[in-house]
Design a protein that fits this description.
Layout (H helix, E strand, L loop, with lengths): L1 H20 L4 E5 L5 E3 H14 L5 E6 L5 E3 L6 E9 L10 E8 L8 E9 L3 E7 L5 E6 L2 E7 L8 E4 L8 H12 L3 E2 L5 H10 L3 E5 L12 H14 L3 E3 L20 E4 L1 H10 L5
Parallel strand pairs: 3-5, 11-12, 11-13
Antiparallel strand pairs: 1-2, 3-4, 5-6, 6-7, 7-8, 8-9, 9-10, 13-15, 14-15
Helix pairs in contact: 1-2, 3-6
Bound molecules: 1,6-di-O-phosphono-alpha-D-fructofuranose.
The site of 1,6-di-O-phosphono-alpha-D-fructofuranose (AFP) has 12 residues, from helix 4.
Amino acid sequence: MNDIFETIKTIAFEIDHVIKAEDVGYSDSENSSGEDQLKLDVQSDLIIEKAFADVASVKALVSEEKEGVLELSPTGKYTVCYDPLDGSSLVDVNLSVGSIFGIYEGELEGKNLVASAYTVYGPRVELIIATRKGKPKVSRVIDGKFQEVFELTMNEKGIFNASGGTQQNWCDYHKTFIDDLFEEGYHLRYSGGMVPDLHQIMVKGGGIFSYPGTSDKPNGKLRQLFEVIPFALMYEQAGGQAINNKGMRLLELVPSHPHDTSPCFFGSNYEITALREAYGIKV
Ligand code: AFP
């Protein structure tokens, strides 16, 4: 998989350059989830598609920005599912954004995710890689190249509480769960970008990020293949947990369509235990 990780590093430099140099306006198109695409989404998608075109181990690509599967090398072993520029609507306000990659071997489902990676384009450019072995590794661009700086390890309990979705559309027990954490002294942290929000919780040692099912979006907003499952591997390997609203590990999800979403909760052990209680999930 090293060729894939090296390609992701090249992609990170290119997308970072485009974010800094290019127009942040809307393109004329929508993505497969019906959302308006920014020019940056389209450009980032093209950069990734071109970069993987000649990587022999990549059998196919599935992009959050496109419908369907793009077949590449017939002898390749892996399918790379990616969100080219998650949180792109935050670029105009100059907040951090990121790219997310899930590397699957076999059918596109959680148990076949062999590795995941995400890039953070912020004040610094960082790349985090998780495999099924060991802690996720954080590399940072120093002197023009990625250098490993530390490993992600989550504490048993954190201090941050981040929940997505419109509060008026939360169900009562989600609202109670979130309010109770604030009553306990948790700090609100929510930028509206999945990458920086989940990254912050892991780097600072713990807490919880929720994107619940809501009355307007019963299956949440975040996509299983490109966002939810890749981050589930990160959290589990860092010593945390990642489950859905029924208590199922997100790494066991089986999407029936590439763009399926799922309610999702990523956190340290203490907060996920509290979530199970609040949601009435039996262990
Ligand atoms: P954009 O790519 O449209 O900026 O959406 C970002 C995102 O998919 C994810 O990065 C956030 O966690 C989530 O949406 C925020 O959604 P809410 O605004 O509904 O909380």
